[in-house]
Design brief:
The complex is a heterodimer.
Chain A (H helix, E strand, L loop, with lengths): L28 E2 L28 E6 L4 E8 L2 E7 L12 E8 L5 E8 L19 E3 L2 E5 L4 E6 L25 E6 H5 L12 E3 L2 E5 L19 E5 L5 E5 L15 E5 L2 E7 L4 E5 L6 E6 L23 E3 L2 E5 L10 E8 L4 E2 L5 E11 L6 E3 L2 E5 L4 E6 L5 E6 L9 E3 L2 E5 L4 E6 L6 E6 L9 E3 L2 E5 L3 E5 L17
Parallel strand pairs in A: 18-22
Antiparallel strand pairs in A: 1-7, 2-34, 3-4, 4-5, 5-6, 7-8, 8-9, 9-10, 11-12, 12-13, 13-14, 15-16, 16-17, 17-18, 19-20, 20-21, 21-23, 24-25, 25-26, 26-27, 28-29, 29-30, 30-31, 32-33, 33-34
Chain B lengths: L42 E2 L15 E5 L2 E2 L4 E3 L2 E8 L6 E8 L5 E7 L17 E2 L6 E4 L4 E5 L5 E6 H5 L13 E3 L2 E8 L9 E8 L5 E5 L15 E5 L2 E7 L4 E6 L5 E6 L10 E3 L2 E9 L6 E8 L4 E2 L5 E6 L9 E3 L2 E5 L4 E6 L5 E6 L9 E3 L2 E6 L3 E7 L4 E8 L15 E3 L2 E6 L2 E5 L27 E5 L2 E4 L4 E3 L1 E5 L14 E5 L3 E3 L4 E4 L6 E9 L2 E9 L5 E3 L20 E6 L2 E6 L8 E5 L8 E9 L1 E2 L2 E2 L1 E6 L2 E6 L4 E5 L9 E4 L8 E9 L4 E9 L10 E5 L9 E5 L4 E10 L2
The chains are: A mainly beta, B mainly beta.
Chain lengths: 494, 739
Amino acid sequence: MKKLRGTLSYCLLGIMVMTGGARAGETDAVMFGHTPSRNMATRDKGLPATWDVGSGLNIKWTAELGSQSYGGPVVAGGKVFVGTNNQKLRNPKLKGDRGNVLVFQESDGTFLWQAAHAKLTAGRVNDWPLQGVCSTPAIQGDRVYYVSNRAEIICADTEGFQDGANDGPFTAEDEKSAIDEDVVWKLDMIVELDVFPHNLAAGNPLIVDDLLFTVTGQGVDEGHVNIPSPLAPDFIAVNTKTGKLAWENADPSPHLLHGSWSNPAYGVIGGKPQVIFPGGDGWLYAFEPRTGKLIWKFDLNPKDSVWELGGSGTRNNVISTPVVYHDRVYIGVGQDPEHGEAPGHFWVVDATGAGDITGKGVVWHIGGDAFHRTLSTAAIQDGLVYIADLSGFLHCLDAETGKEYWKYDAFAAVWGSAFVADGKVYLGDEDGDVAVLAAGKTMNLLGEINMGGAVYTTPVAHDGTLFISTRNKLYAIHDGIPARSVPASGTGSR
Amino acid sequence: MNRQGDARGGVVVLCLLLGLVSAPVRTAAAEWPDWRGPHHNGVSTETGLVSSWSPEGENLIWKADFIGRSTPVVFDGRACVIGRVGEGIRRQERVACFSADDGRLLWEDRFNVYHTTVPFNRVGWASLAGDPETGLLYAHGVAGQMIAYDRRGAVVWSHFLTEEYGHLSGYGGRTQTPLVVGDQLIISFVSSSWGEEAAPRHRTFSFDKRSGTLLWVSTPGNLPYDFNTQSAPVVATIQGERLIVAGNADGWIYGLRAGTGEKVWGFQLGKRGLNSTVLVDGDRVYAAHSEENIDTPNMGRLVCFSAAGTGDLTGTHEIWRVDEFSDGFPSPTLRDGRLFAVDNSANLYSIDAATGRVAWSFRLGRVGKGSPVWADGKIYVTEVNGGFHILKPGPEEAHSLDLDLLRMPDGRPAEIYGSPAVAYQRVYFAGENGLYCLGNPARPFSTGRDREKRVRAEQGEGPPTRVQVVPAEALMAPGETAPFSIRAFDAKGRPLPAGSGKAVWALQGLEGSLDQAGRFTAAARPAAQAGHVEARLGGARATARVRVIPPLPWLEDFERCQPGESPASWVGARGKFVVAERDGGKVLRKEPRPRGLNRSATYMGPPSLKNYTIQADVLGTRKGRRLADIGLIAGGYTLDLQGAHQKLQVRSWASVLRMAQEVDFAWEPDTWYRIKLSVSVGREKATVSGKVWPRDAAEPDRWTIRVDDPLPIAGGSPGLVAYTPVDAYYDNIQVRVNE
């Protein structure tokens, strides 16, 4: 018998932000999608192809998370950062539903410190219950940046208070014990920018040099049609040192379909840098990173598509994060998974254009029955694109032409992304299975390993260790660890 | 047909009911009058059912045009279902009854959806309930319509729960299915109305099933985390007592005495609202959810507990649990000691009901919402993406007998959220692309109406320990007389005969006269009142809630009100619309909410009002980029002045904007405007007209906006609606009958 599967939680939004990887590349910062290009493929080596969470085979360590975890994991500076909720109580003074970032020691999983943000009193329309911090943190040096469930951009000391110092300018933390967060600065996007996050602000910050870029989470109100704050920004750039706003853009705000849950990517196209923001209006925007000046924009939906409330329409918004690869942008469209499975689109856009490049900027495209709605971000390596859709299909496509080499059916919803490294493709699903396939033009399933809980995140790797978070546990997986007895979760009598 | 309930129409004496209230009405097993079947457990004793079929025709006896998201009920020779219909401005909720034999449409009712943010594709999510005894059919619409139909489809009674009782609905669209228990129609929902029922709670309402008179309201739980939930009530005999058992929006499961609504026990299952309907077998309750558990840092649990107890059973009565079993919607079924449950990912499990041990699982698809049905040795179960499975369950595994994938004309899967119904040796189910009837076409149709004789309820004995005043809530006019009666019950909740002692009657907070037969005559002065009619019998005491609302015209300038008060008789106003002082006078203020949504509506009077005009002075403030929306409600339609968008909009259904129109309208913060909404209703259309102008200027002759609605809302309470990320104010509210 297969082990009990995970759930489609009634999580409207955690999905939006799933996962992160950690691998410094073009920048000194580590973030969701490893580098500013957001490519879910890396050159890590020596990663495990098999493990067993029951016997402990190849399980280096395990850490308890909250009951829902959509942020991270991301690994930097010897630490692992995860966004989760407060259901695994760490600080008894901070009870109740909160949004947490947990920080663990990379070597052995020792818990180091946590952030634990109270919920917004407006309730689910701005801060969905029990979904925690859905942002995947970005780490640059000794600073960690993320978007809290309260729609604050937080800059914190990666050492917490364990270095004995309260780094400022912000020094008014309520809790200052060794396991609490040392906030350096914060920017409250609701108070200072009048942003109305729909269900949850969940941006995964992009950091390039001294600028942080994120979507604000802007969206519709509880009636799902009215846009309550149409003058507030969708995209912002913030100075990482000061927390001061560098620029803002509100172009999508009057046209939002639902919420803004995608993330910006960055690339140098033809020698000129671009920051590429997917909007809550279903358009893709490229800006000059320093000024916010628009370079090009592209409508990610066919012109005859129709947005219908509740998910039955053909127009989609964007939850997938764009990937910049060889002067092109790879991105799919999708919707809140509660809206169901339906035909989607996956676009490859030539980023060298200017102005409205809808249509003429298309390099190739798949959609309809061939590609369903997706929440996933592409992994591109050796000329192959690996992209999953919500229905559970993992597509292996030619990066130049879009030709499909193979399609794997996970038989369960996929909210995270495929991670490609070391000749393998790792894909988690809602049933709690992680499929391990051989990278390449021929489909070869190496194994399907059940994690005991839904995997809504994307695996990441560092120094030969694979990190996978299920909804409530973080696993460090490394070859060469013999089977042993590990504590089982829950009290079930399966 | 008049869709608007008027509580005044329900003020009737209910002596006839006494003695029959908790009688279980048992229907022949051949029928399926409740969405989970005659015994509320998803099991049918029918035999000779199909093992395979095809949408192309094999064993497909008939298929009717219908867009459904619910489970049909099949009784009285009819298959009845609720769903949605229409396009564009004609989008509505639809109830229809078809001949269970050949699928002929017998009748249908299409009604408007308004005062809600439910999207169109979630309309008609709660299933219907049928009453084999009377032939009545009950519908709970997504926007809070509660309608009783007779066999011919005529409306016998109706209430608009939203305007009368503060029914809350929302984008999620999850709506409670009604339940017939003896002479009662049970319906539950999260409400926020007036007085002691202003605080939002998941309440259970009992109406007389024939007249629609409100018998009692039970509030067993606490502040809910979720306002739209779907764990439907079931009725069962537990330790010899008839109980209504249901999951609550506060995460608990409660057992309520079926005749009185008294809470007997509670069991906390989760932290969030419950959507899966429980299964009761003997004294055991099987329940599931897929959200946060209360005592472990994980999500989802399937649990079995003993309901043989009183009080809080949470820590003491659990028999077994399966953690991380994520069954958010489907209700389990039980047969021969095996529990069959579907999880959110559409895996069907066979579980030992005694121990919770999982025997096998079977992958149905990707998304599980429908509940399995056991019949004729087979399991019939749906999957959201168009899957209809017939399985043969064995001890070690299940074998697929048949799988059909239903598709829409454009090729995409047809959604199926409902569950099968089994009756008359046939299987019925509804999906996005029709209502299906499966069976052996060679077998003649027979309703087999061998209905069991009705059992008279057990009579109580001894002194009354609990009394109820009926109607439990009334809406009256000044000078009107309404009779109230008393119902008495013994310590076990059994009804005592009428005349079990003499009641002593009194008024609380009401002006008027009350005689000792329970007849209340409201004071004739034209002012609104809200209070209680109290009755004492022996040591027991009960009250009925009464609002007295004068006829039009109304003028409210708030000068007689105290700052900090909310108008006592308005539904949904308390703590949201509050009297304040400004510019040397009293006004009504709507502030940003310290908790919860900044958008609120309040209803001031009976839903039966029609053909009137409401006018008010309004002022919005500004902070940063934040501006308020300030509006009026008349006859089911809303007109609001939108701050951030600088528009004036007319609408009825905020998430669908079926008949909405808007015009640009530049207006300034911190400036008083006068806004007017007039609705005229005819048979063919409603004309909705709005205008707004600076208060100190002359009223313009022309309407600023005017819309004809070809599907007129028949009427509705005057009200206010406002979205206030910053303060907004109202003053000088006038409501007048149209000239």
